[in-house]
Every structure is written in structure tokens, then in C-alpha cells.
Amino acid sequence: MITPLAVRGTRERVRLSPLLRLLILTQLAFNIGFFAVLPFLAEHLGGAVGMAGWMVGFVLGLRTFSQQGLFVVGGALADRYGVRPVVLAGCVLRIAGFGWLGYAERASAVIGAVLLIGFAAALFSPAVESEVARQAVAWEESGGGSRTRVLALFTVAGQAGAFVGPLLGALLLSVDFRAVCLAGAGVFVLVLAGHARLLPQHIPGRVRVQVRGGIGPLLRNRRFLALCCAFGAYLLAYNQLYLALPAEVERAAGSQAPLAWLFALSSLLVVTAQLPVTRWVGERLTLRRSMAAGLALIAAGFGVVALALPSGGTGAAGLVPAAGFVVLLTLGQMLVAPAARAWVPDLAEEGRLGLYTGALSSVSGLIVLVGSAGTGTLLDSGLPAAVPWAVLAVVPAGAVLLLPRRG
Asked: Which of 75, 151, 251, 280 could form an SS bridge with 338, CB 3.0 to 4.6 Å?
């Protein structure tokens, strides 16, 4: 059995430090609370609040911008003030945001609550992620094993939370959306209390730096920016689970009902296979080769659908290429995500790991924002259905060429 308390290999069991266990469990709790609410937000806004479709999309886009776009701010604050105050402040804002959203009835109130929810994550997520990466490097240097194993465990915890959260939300939705929001807030109350008690005031080895002065060297760091672009291409490809895949499922099955099963398949693969895959890859591939292999698998996933579409298959047989896409995309994710996060400490300036971790998300998030608009245009262009999938296959394949070649 694999738990957040230890990483079990084929011949050894390596215990993680109490701080790493706390941070990994934090990711689990964060995602349970967040995904208890997020999957049901669009329907609530369009139904109970009565927003038009374009307004619902605008609000969801604002949430993404206030979160992903401001990760670099949260990372810089973590470098300056430490992990504890930034994480605690983020939890307080998330509690307030979920509570506000549960009672919001006007568009202006909803927008305010959503911005607060997004900014909360922009505070605590880069703080936690950068400290996990730093601790993973220390764990590797002490002889514990590859840092990617720790980061893979962090990914598994997040995916498990993303799987459990919607189940909790669906259960509470039988009461009403307010109950869902208050439950999400309750999860973060528990996280806040646990971190106020257990998270150290000062983490050994962490040096605080000034907030200003780090952006210039970051923008001149070509190897890091190349990693951001490659990671952004991966995220753009992964985002097709929510854009291109639903359209393909609708074409093949006549409805989007099979989507839930495909999402469950992806989550199950990550939870059960991430650690064995990372252990196997870590013994054989460098970080660059791991990312290159993952991007190649993702490109192959798009290629499977592009090659199958001219036959026009429908029904259960028509869904097989979509399932193949999900499997290959998820396997690629297992290789790319831990390797990218493990690479950041080697490219970051001393004392600026939070800034660089946040910048990885912010820059790649901007790429996804621009790329998604282009993808939507491509899907609506009236071209043969195979063409958008073939074009999308080129994105991760081309990203292999962007990967830094040293280190």
C-alpha cells in the first residue's frame, strides 16, 4: 500500500520527513475542498444566479486568471515572508471566498467571491509547491532517492483530492449549492487549524529575500523560460480534456455522458500508476528525457484520434480512440509534471524558488489562455474533424525541441 507517509519501492521503504508529509497531505486537502465546489459552479451560475452563457465563461476565466496568473506573486511573497504566513493567509481568503460565494446572489458579488477564491490559491499553492520541491531536493541529496518520486507522490495526493472532492460536492448538492460552498470552506478551516499548529515558523535552510529584484534575472534566464514554454505546451494539450475531448465524445456517442467515465479513468491511472511509473523512469531517464518522452506520448494521443476520425466510427467502438487519447495523455502527464517541477530548483536563483515555481505556472497559464482561444477557433473552423487533432499533435511534439539541453 502506498500512503503519503512513505514511498515504497520494490526493495525499500523510505520514510519522508514530517514537513513533507504535512505538505503532501495539504495538497490532498486543498483539492478536496476546491473540487467539491468547482465542478458545480458553472451550472449554479447559469441556473440559480441566472447568468448568460458568456458571463458564466467570463467568471470562470476570471477565476483562472486570478489564480494561475498571480502564482508568480504568491511565489515571490513566499520567498520574502516564508511559507507559513502565506499559506495561512491563503487559507483565510479561501474560507472567506467560499462563504461569500455560498450567499452571493448578484453578479458583482459572485465575481468578488470568485476573485477571492482564485487569489487565495495564488498565495498558498506556489508556497506549498516550492517548499515541496526544495524539500525533495534535500531528500535526494541526503540519499533518500530521486526527487521526482516525492513530486510524484505530491501529484498523486492532488489527483486523489480531485477525485474525492466532486463526490463530496455531489453528495451535498442534494441539499443546495450553499451547503457545497460551506463544506468547501469547512475543509479549509481544518487545513488552517492544522497548519497553524504544525507548520514551522521557520523552516531550516530557507533564506528570505526581498520581493523586488528577482524578475529581471528570471526574464533573462533562457533555460527556465524554455522550460516554461514546454510546460505550457503540455498544459495546453492537457486542457483539451475540457475542450476538444467533449466535442469528440459528443460526436461519437451522441451525448457527453461518457465523459465522466473517461475522467475517472484518467484519475484512476494517476492514483494507481504514478509512483511505479516515476520510479521506473527515474532509474532510467534524465529529467529532459522524461519530459521529452511524456510530450511524445501526448502527441501520440492526439495522433490516435486524428487517424481514427476519417472512419467516422460511432457508439462504443467510436469511443475507443478517445479512450486511447485519455490513456496516452495521462501517461504523458505522469512523465512531464513531476520532471518539470523537479527541474525548477536547478534553474532558479538561490532563495527565489517560490518566484520561479510561481512563474512556471503563470507563464504556462498565459500560454494556455492564448492557445485555448486558438484551439476554440480551430475546432469551430468547419475543417474536417481530423485536422484540429492533427494540429494539436504538433504542439507537444514541437515542445520537445524547446526543452533546455543542459542540466
From this structure: 151
- Prediction pTM value: 0.76
**Cα(79)–Cα(359) distance, integer angstroms:** 13
Share the mean pLDDT of the chain.
Answer: 83
Tens of pLDDT along 10-41? 344 457 788 888 999 999 999 898 888 877 78
Residue 242: helix, strand or coil by DSSP?
Answer: coil
Kindly state the cell numbers that stand for 362.
503563470
Alpha helix ranges (H) inside 52-146: 53-68, 71-81, 83-103, 107-141
Secondary structure (3-state) at 61 = helix
pLDDT greater at residue 261 or residue 179:
179
The C-alpha atoms of residue 250 and residue 154 are separated, in whole angstroms, by: 33
CATH topology (fold) of 16-198: Growth Hormone; Chain: A; (1.20.1250)
Q: Which residues contact 396 (CB under 8 A, 6 or more apart)?
A: 233, 234, 237, 295, 296, 298, 299, 302, 332
Domain-wise residue ranges, the chain: 16-198, 214-407
Which of 125-134, 142-151, 307-316, 387-396 has the highest mean predicted lDDT (pLDDT)?
Answer: 387-396
What is d(CA 290, CA 340) in angstroms, rounded to the nearest whole number? 9
Q: Please state, in angstroms and rounded to a whole number, the distance separating the CA atoms of residues 311 and 300.
A: 18
Domains 16-198 and 214-407 share a fold: yes
Residue 2: is its pLDDT beyond 50? Answer: no
Query: What is the CATH number assigned to the segment(s) 214-407?
Result: 1.20.1250.20
Question: Which residues, including other chains, have CB under 8 Å from residue 67's CB and lie 6 or more apart?
Answer: 117, 118, 119, 121, 122, 125
Length of the chain: 407
Tell me the C-alpha distance between 244 and 241, whole Å: 6
Point out which residues pair with 13 in neighbouring strands: 8
Q: Which residues contact 206 (CB under 8 A, 6 or more apart)?
A: 82, 83, 131, 134
Residue with the three cell numbers 472532492: 165
Separation between Cα atoms, residue 113 and residue 180, nearest integer Å:
15
* Contact present, 299 and 397 (Cβ < 8 Å): yes
**79 and 352 in contact (C-beta within 8 Å)?**
yes
Bridge partners, 14 (sequence order): 7
Residue holding cell 525499500?
Answer: 12
